[in-house]
# Entry
Amino acid sequence: MEHTESQLIEWWAQGRREAAELLIRKYYPYAYSLCLGYCKGNQELTNNAVQLFFARFSQTLPKIYKEDKSKFESIRDNFQAYLLIGIKNNAKEQIRLMLRRNSKIAPISSLPPQKTNPDSETDSFERKNALEYILSFLPNSQKQVYQLYLEGYSYEEIANQTDLNKAQIRGRIERSNKTLKGHRALIKHLLIQ
# Structure
Protein backbone atom coordinates (compact mmCIF):
# COMPACT_ATOMS: atom_id res chain seq x y z
CA MET A 1 0.00 0.00 0.00
CA GLU A 2 1.37 3.40 -1.05
CA HIS A 3 1.38 6.08 1.64
CA THR A 4 1.13 9.78 1.01
CA GLU A 5 4.02 12.06 1.75
CA SER A 6 1.93 13.84 4.39
CA GLN A 7 1.28 10.55 6.17
CA LEU A 8 4.96 9.65 6.11
CA ILE A 9 5.97 13.02 7.56
CA GLU A 10 3.37 12.67 10.31
CA TRP A 11 4.58 9.16 11.12
CA TRP A 12 8.18 10.40 11.12
CA ALA A 13 7.14 13.06 13.65
CA GLN A 14 5.55 10.33 15.77
CA GLY A 15 8.84 8.41 15.82
CA ARG A 16 8.23 5.78 13.15
CA ARG A 17 11.70 5.12 11.80
CA GLU A 18 10.54 3.36 8.64
CA ALA A 19 8.69 6.51 7.55
CA ALA A 20 11.84 8.56 8.08
CA GLU A 21 13.90 6.07 6.07
CA LEU A 22 11.43 6.13 3.17
CA LEU A 23 11.41 9.93 3.01
CA ILE A 24 15.18 10.23 3.33
CA ARG A 25 15.66 7.64 0.57
CA LYS A 26 13.21 9.55 -1.61
CA TYR A 27 14.64 13.04 -1.02
CA TYR A 28 18.33 12.43 -0.42
CA PRO A 29 19.30 12.51 -4.14
CA TYR A 30 17.24 15.69 -4.66
CA ALA A 31 18.75 17.33 -1.55
CA TYR A 32 22.25 16.24 -2.56
CA SER A 33 22.00 17.65 -6.09
CA LEU A 34 20.60 20.95 -4.78
CA CYS A 35 23.28 21.23 -2.16
CA LEU A 36 26.06 20.32 -4.58
CA GLY A 37 25.10 23.42 -6.56
CA TYR A 38 25.11 25.64 -3.47
CA CYS A 39 28.47 24.20 -2.40
CA LYS A 40 29.94 24.75 -5.89
CA GLY A 41 30.71 21.08 -6.41
CA ASN A 42 32.45 20.47 -3.08
CA GLN A 43 31.31 16.96 -2.20
CA GLU A 44 32.58 17.02 1.38
CA LEU A 45 30.62 20.18 2.19
CA THR A 46 27.60 18.76 0.38
CA ASN A 47 27.67 15.50 2.34
CA ASN A 48 28.00 17.39 5.61
CA ALA A 49 25.19 19.82 4.80
CA VAL A 50 22.72 17.16 3.62
CA GLN A 51 23.41 14.82 6.52
CA LEU A 52 23.17 17.70 8.95
CA PHE A 53 19.82 18.75 7.49
CA PHE A 54 18.28 15.30 7.90
CA ALA A 55 19.80 14.82 11.36
CA ARG A 56 18.46 18.18 12.57
CA PHE A 57 15.11 17.55 10.94
CA SER A 58 14.85 14.19 12.71
CA GLN A 59 15.52 15.89 16.04
CA THR A 60 13.24 18.90 15.61
CA LEU A 61 10.27 17.36 13.80
CA PRO A 62 8.89 15.48 16.84
CA LYS A 63 9.23 18.61 18.99
CA ILE A 64 7.42 20.74 16.43
CA TYR A 65 4.73 18.07 16.09
CA LYS A 66 4.07 18.13 19.84
CA GLU A 67 4.45 21.86 20.49
CA ASP A 68 3.30 23.72 17.38
CA LYS A 69 0.69 21.98 15.23
CA SER A 70 0.31 24.86 12.78
CA LYS A 71 4.06 24.96 12.09
CA PHE A 72 4.08 21.18 11.72
CA GLU A 73 1.18 21.33 9.24
CA SER A 74 3.01 24.00 7.26
CA ILE A 75 6.13 21.82 7.06
CA ARG A 76 4.09 18.74 6.21
CA ASP A 77 2.13 20.52 3.48
CA ASN A 78 5.16 22.30 2.01
CA PHE A 79 7.91 19.78 2.63
CA GLN A 80 9.78 20.36 -0.62
CA ALA A 81 9.99 24.10 0.04
CA TYR A 82 11.09 23.44 3.63
CA LEU A 83 13.72 21.01 2.33
CA LEU A 84 14.98 23.56 -0.21
CA ILE A 85 15.34 26.30 2.40
CA GLY A 86 16.91 23.93 4.94
CA ILE A 87 19.43 22.59 2.44
CA LYS A 88 20.34 26.10 1.30
CA ASN A 89 20.87 27.25 4.90
CA ASN A 90 22.94 24.18 5.77
CA ALA A 91 25.08 24.64 2.66
CA LYS A 92 25.73 28.27 3.62
CA GLU A 93 26.61 27.18 7.15
CA GLN A 94 29.10 24.59 5.87
CA ILE A 95 30.72 27.15 3.57
CA ARG A 96 31.00 29.65 6.45
CA LEU A 97 32.58 26.98 8.67
CA MET A 98 35.06 26.04 5.95
CA LEU A 99 36.00 29.69 5.38
CA ARG A 100 36.31 30.25 9.11
CA ARG A 101 38.57 27.21 9.46
CA ASN A 102 40.71 28.37 6.55
CA SER A 103 41.03 31.91 7.89
CA LYS A 104 41.72 31.08 11.53
CA ILE A 105 44.55 33.03 13.00
CA ALA A 106 46.96 31.22 15.24
CA PRO A 107 46.28 31.50 18.97
CA ILE A 108 48.63 33.90 20.76
CA SER A 109 50.20 31.06 22.74
CA SER A 110 51.30 29.25 19.58
CA LEU A 111 53.00 32.21 17.95
CA PRO A 112 56.79 32.45 18.06
CA PRO A 113 58.41 35.16 20.16
CA GLN A 114 58.79 38.52 18.49
CA LYS A 115 61.87 39.08 16.36
CA THR A 116 62.44 42.80 16.33
CA ASN A 117 64.11 44.63 13.54
CA PRO A 118 65.00 48.12 14.76
CA ASP A 119 64.51 49.64 11.29
CA SER A 120 60.99 48.34 10.80
CA GLU A 121 59.71 48.30 14.36
CA THR A 122 57.18 51.07 13.73
CA ASP A 123 56.28 49.88 10.23
CA SER A 124 54.84 46.47 11.04
CA PHE A 125 53.80 44.22 13.84
CA GLU A 126 54.33 40.55 14.25
CA ARG A 127 50.98 38.81 14.37
CA LYS A 128 51.36 38.10 18.06
CA ASN A 129 52.06 41.73 18.88
CA ALA A 130 49.32 42.91 16.56
CA LEU A 131 46.77 40.69 18.24
CA GLU A 132 47.92 41.79 21.68
CA TYR A 133 47.77 45.39 20.49
CA ILE A 134 44.21 45.00 19.22
CA LEU A 135 43.04 43.25 22.36
CA SER A 136 44.59 45.96 24.54
CA PHE A 137 41.80 48.34 23.46
CA LEU A 138 39.12 46.04 24.85
CA PRO A 139 37.89 45.68 28.42
CA ASN A 140 38.85 42.40 30.09
CA SER A 141 35.28 41.11 29.77
CA GLN A 142 35.57 41.22 25.95
CA LYS A 143 39.21 40.17 25.36
CA GLN A 144 38.86 36.40 25.62
CA VAL A 145 35.64 36.32 23.60
CA TYR A 146 37.07 38.49 20.82
CA GLN A 147 40.32 36.54 20.70
CA LEU A 148 38.39 33.28 20.27
CA TYR A 149 36.24 34.98 17.63
CA LEU A 150 39.35 36.06 15.71
CA GLU A 151 40.71 32.52 15.98
CA GLY A 152 37.65 31.35 14.06
CA TYR A 153 35.48 29.81 16.75
CA SER A 154 31.71 29.95 16.31
CA TYR A 155 29.48 31.71 18.83
CA GLU A 156 28.41 28.30 20.12
CA GLU A 157 32.00 27.11 20.56
CA ILE A 158 32.91 30.34 22.36
CA ALA A 159 29.87 29.98 24.60
CA ASN A 160 30.95 26.46 25.54
CA GLN A 161 34.45 27.65 26.44
CA THR A 162 33.40 30.72 28.40
CA ASP A 163 30.15 29.72 30.13
CA LEU A 164 28.34 32.62 28.44
CA ASN A 165 25.27 32.25 26.25
CA LYS A 166 25.22 33.03 22.52
CA ALA A 167 23.44 36.36 23.03
CA GLN A 168 26.15 37.50 25.43
CA ILE A 169 28.83 36.37 23.00
CA ARG A 170 27.16 38.21 20.14
CA GLY A 171 26.84 41.36 22.25
CA ARG A 172 30.48 41.31 23.33
CA ILE A 173 31.68 40.78 19.77
CA GLU A 174 29.46 43.61 18.48
CA ARG A 175 30.75 45.95 21.22
CA SER A 176 34.33 44.87 20.44
CA ASN A 177 33.80 45.58 16.74
CA LYS A 178 32.51 49.07 17.57
CA THR A 179 35.47 49.72 19.86
CA LEU A 180 37.95 48.46 17.27
CA LYS A 181 36.39 50.20 14.27
CA GLY A 182 39.57 52.17 13.60
CA HIS A 183 41.70 49.02 13.56
CA ARG A 184 39.80 47.08 10.87
CA ALA A 185 42.73 47.08 8.44
CA LEU A 186 45.00 45.51 11.04
CA ILE A 187 42.36 42.93 11.97
CA LYS A 188 41.83 42.08 8.30
CA HIS A 189 45.59 41.75 7.85
CA LEU A 190 45.72 39.34 10.79
CA LEU A 191 42.96 37.19 9.35
CA ILE A 192 44.49 37.00 5.87
CA GLN A 193 47.94 35.81 7.00
Observations:
- The mean pLDDT is 80.
- The chain has two domains: 5-102, 108-192.
